[in-house]
Amino acid sequence: MPEQLIWGMEVFFNGLMAGVLYALVALGFVLIFKASGIFNYAQGVMALFAALTLVGIMEGQVPFAHLINAIFGTEIHHFGWHVPGLLAILLTMVVMIALAWAVNQFIFRHLVNQEPIILFMATIGLAYFLEGVGDIMWGSDIKKLDVGLPQGINGPIDELTYNIFNYGFFIDNLDLVATLVAALLVIALVIFAQYSKQGRAMRAVADDHQAALSVGISLNFIWVMVWSLAGFVALVAGIMWGTKSGVQFSLSLIALKALPVLMLGGFTSIPGAIVGGLIIGVGEKLFEFAVGPMVGGATENWFAYVLALLFLVFRPQGLFGEKIIERV
Amino acid sequence: MLDQTEGFVTEDGRKIGPVVMEMKNITLRFGGVVAIKDISFDIREGEIRAIIGPNGAGKSSMLNVISGFYHPQEGEVWYKGAKRPAMKPYQVARQGIARTFQNIALFEGMSVLDNVMTGRFRQMTSGFWAQALWKGPAEREEIANREAVERIIDFLEIQHIRKTPVGRLPYGLKKRVELARALAAEPSILLLDEPMAGMNVEEKEDMSRFILDVNDEFGTTIALIEHDMGVVMDLSDRVVVMDYGKKIGDGTPDEVRNNQDVIDAYLGVAHD
Amino acid sequence: MLYREAGDFKTSYVADSQTFPIKFDRYRYYAVLIIGFAFIPFVINDYWVNAIFLPFLIYSIAAIGLNILTGYCGQVSLGTGGFMAVGAYACYKLMTAFPEVSILIHVLLAGGITAGVGVLFGLPSLRIKGFYLAVATLAAQFFLVWLFNRVPWFYNYSASGQINAPERTMFGVPVTGPETAAWAAYLFCLVLTVFCALIARNLTRGMMGRKWMAIRDMDIAAEIIGVNPLMAKLSAFAVSSFFVGVAGALFFAVYLGAVEVGEAFGITKSFLVLFMVIIGGLGSIFGSFAGAAFLVLLPVVLKLVGVDLLGWPTDLVAHLQLIIVGALIVLFLIVEPHGLAQLWRVAKEKLRLWPFPH
User: Fold this and answer.
1) CA dist C18 to A161, A241, C198, Å?
2) Where are the transmembrane segments (chain C) (predicted)?
3) Structure confidence by residue, pLDDT tens digits, B34-71
């Protein structure tokens, strides 16, 4: 087999793994969008915020230390304890739920019945706000996140592929774990949305919140729940990306990558988010591999968007979205 | 029957002109659902033509076909003596067909005056650069059309709300503004989609008066959909009755009123 | 009583459709122009020009541009930074290729080229709506920045990958390059800002503006009453991109002088201009100025208070700024979606009655 093709296969697999992570973030978008019609631009910043909080709790950082020091002239930074990974994750989840409550209480409760585009712009404001809060709370330096997930090259795959192609594929253990977690998460969410009472209420709210209100569903409860779920998905995504490339601002940019994923998959479709994520992940890695060197590289910056744009021109509702029927 | 190609005069002395629009064997399907099935009728110049029928009979779809929003799978639309090719809605509008909507479709963020001015797109043709400069042709055109629009505003008695944003108006006034916008286009045919839906008796009387006045004053041909039978019978010269996408009656109000199919459709038939 | 329109009767439609129908507004507008042209150039220094006046004027042009697209035509764009980059690089290529041609013409041509690119990326807007389109404009943002970063022709194969504005003059006075006097740069930008604002105002009060607003408020109804949606949207993209391109050209040539594309015209720039439009007021030319002024002044004031007065570290103040801007955006969307412009209108209504509110 020619070398190019084998390398291409390796790129393909790595693209699949990246795609899973894109899909994971996109999933958070779909959840919120389906239940509230809000297109949550802040999803990526939520992932960053979750990862920052997790690291901060594990390391025993004092929240807002920077600000406190500046105001009172003190020099405090750490509590001096370390919190084990699992407990820290739980605590972070509590923070994310509190955040969900606050977001609903102070922002979106006041924006009921607004046009989607206004809601969208509000989430951009939320993203800025949260980014600032995250930085002030935990500091803006790049942090390492290690909750004990396996990392590094996967031995068996390396060996297996070496035996077949005489060339060992580099597949990161972390990516494999991420794929597994993403798959479990998706299954859990689908089951939750389809079969649980809350899930059904969630879908009812998504369809028509006034009708839902009239049959006795608490909108506030559902919305807080949905934002909490999105916070949970953000936490998982934050752990994966944070472990992979450190907790830093660029983490919030993966949210932007999830947007073309959604355009491709359709904003309301969970399978769409997954398939879209895989297509984008594989597509951009293969494109960079095949075309990138000829045009100066770094095509990953725009490939996903241009692909989604071209795709939308021909199928405006996305791969799995429902057909848009216009009426007067 | 007399030859009526060149028009005729009705019993109460109204002059009806020749056929201006003719629908020939229109069939419209959405997927497997047949919304309109093989319907033909015509609209004559200067008349008030009503389309009636129970809910879901396909009346609104018919209006949408006339205004170019839906494209029928079969059949032809003839307008002013020529077959109309497939057109986009804005092209139809530029041929002089204006309409109002069942669920008011005004531009909520704009003032009443601006809304009515949008009806004049057909008349205002100054180019981009003229508009960018404003002084000169664009301003002259704006003023001339403003005068025309102010006449319509006077006519429909909405002077006092001229500069109010449309979003703040009550329902009845919105309906009137929408009529003003359609009239501003100086249309050859004016389509009214349930102009009196959701109105109380007084508002209906006002609206009926406006419709008759428009027809009288400007000689505008009007095709309207309406549920209120009394209103329809009083206003219109001829009526098309639809049921389940089919035409079941066509003629003067009196003829339609005595048509057995129509009575069955409205009152129901005993099935044995 | 401070602000009145009673007794200010109009006897013609010409008088009724002018830019400032109320006498008081008109006089104030003339006063601002006179101060701007005849007073400020004599008193300002480098700090004021570079910290406040140049960014204010240039961002005002960009905000007017985005407001036409988003506020008037209802098409949200997140590609403003990318389009500004087009203006900047077009201006740079023109300046270096035709040194003998006036810089004014280069800036306007750069706007024209940006208009063309804008139309190209606006084409999908006929099929894609709402935030689908917003996300699609991100494609323009990322692709354009990448293009100027990676294709050496655009930066004339310079080793640093930066572009530097050479010295160009108007009436013998340098307006770009390191020798530029503060007042010259200021006046050059002011003239262009006034020019752009006038054109924007004329377009938005006439038929063009009504077409845009009709598309914004209800696109299907607009089409049925005779607006060609493709033409309306593309003209909005073209006009908007022209202004944004002019702003980009000025930002590079007059304000910064040297530009690295990712830094100067990244996605944050797109958001900054969008925020100006939201805070200032969607669908208002005055709002574009207000929003630009607000977001130009905010960091200056914060730095004065936070860093210089309280002695806090710079990065802390920068983070606080993020929080404040984010909170303000949300606050404005909740309380006053029409932004500062609407607050101003309300204030005027109050002043009309003051001091006798009953």
Assistant:
1) 76, 57, 12
2) 27-44, 50-69, 76-95, 101-123, 130-148, 180-200, 237-259, 271-296, 316-335
3) 889 999 999 999 899 999 888 888 888 999 999 898 99
The answer to whether residue B198 scores a pLDDT higher than 60 is yes
For residue C316, the chain A residues in CB contact (below 8 A) are 66-67, 70, 136
Residues C330, A326: C-beta atoms closer than 8 Å: no
Q: Of B200, B210, B265, whose CA–CA distance to B239 is shortest?
A: B265
Q: Is B144 on the interface with A (CB under 8 A)?
A: no
Domains of chain B: which residue ranges?
1-86+190-272, 97-186
Average pLDDT over residues B73-90: 89
The gap from C-alpha C350 to its chain's centroid, in whole angstroms, comes to 29
Query: What does each C-alpha distance from A159 to A149, A162, B261 come to in angstroms?
Result: 22, 5, 82
Q: Which residues pair with C163 in a beta bridge?
A: C259
Rg (alpha carbons) of chain C, rounded to whole number: 21
CA A230, distance to chain mean position in Å, is 9
CA B76 to CA B62: how far, in whole Å?
13
Q: How far apart are CA B212 and CA A35, in angstroms?
A: 49
Q: Do C315 and A316 touch (CB under 8 A)?
A: no
Nearest 5°: the CA angle C185, C300, C308 is: 125
Q: Any CB–CB contact under 8 A between C298 and chain A?
A: no
Best residue in A115, A118, A325, A328 to probe B by mutation, most B CBs within 10 Å? Answer: A328
| Most C-contacting residue of B118, B128, B133, B147 (CB-CB within 10 A), to test interface | B118
Contact C206 B88 (CB under 8 A): no
Tell me if the domain spanning B97-186 has CATH number 3.40.50.300: yes
Q: How many residues does chain C have?
A: 358
Contact C223 B142 (CB under 8 A): no
Q: How far is A241 from chain C (nearest CA, A)?
A: 21
Determine the distance in angstroms separating the CA of B11 from the nearest CA of chain A, rounded to an integer. Answer: 37
Q: Over the Cα atoms of chain A, what is R_g?
A: 21
The reply to whether A213 touches chain C by the CB within 8 Å rule is: no
What pLDDT does B4 receive? 62
| pTM of structure | 0.88
Question: For C76-94, how does the pLDDT look when each residue is reduced to its tens digit (9 = 90+)?
Answer: 899 999 999 999 999 999 9
Indicate the pairing of strand B19-30 with strand B33-44. Answer: antiparallel
Mean pLDDT of C224-238: 92
The one-letter code for the residue type at B263 is I
**All residues at 6 or more sequence positions from C272 whose CB lies less than 8 Å from its CB, including other chains:** C59, C295
Instruction: Find residue B26's DSSP bridge partners.
Output: B39
Residues on chain B touching A328 (C-beta within 8 angstroms): 64, 69, 101-103, 105
Name the closest residue on chain C to residue B90, using Cα atoms: C226
> Between residues 234 and 293 of chain A, which touch chain C (CB distance below 8 Å)?
256, 259-260, 262-263
Instruction: Output the CA torsion sign for B88, B94, B98, B101.
Output: positive
**Tens digits of residue pLDDT in B136-180:** 888 888 888 888 899 999 988 888 888 888 888 888 889 999 999
What's the gap between Cα A306 and its chain centre? 21
**A198 — pLDDT class (breaks 50, 70, 90):** confident
CA distance B68 to chain C (A): 8
B210 contacts: CB under 8 Å, gap ≥ 6: B156, B176, B179
> Domain B1-86+190-272, what fold?
Rossmann fold (3.40.50)
Measured CA to CA, the distance from residue C148 to residue C263 in angstroms comes to: 12
Nearest to C13 among B90, B110, B147 (CB): B147
Interface of B with C in 134-163 (CB under 8 A): 134, 138-139, 142-143, 146-147, 150
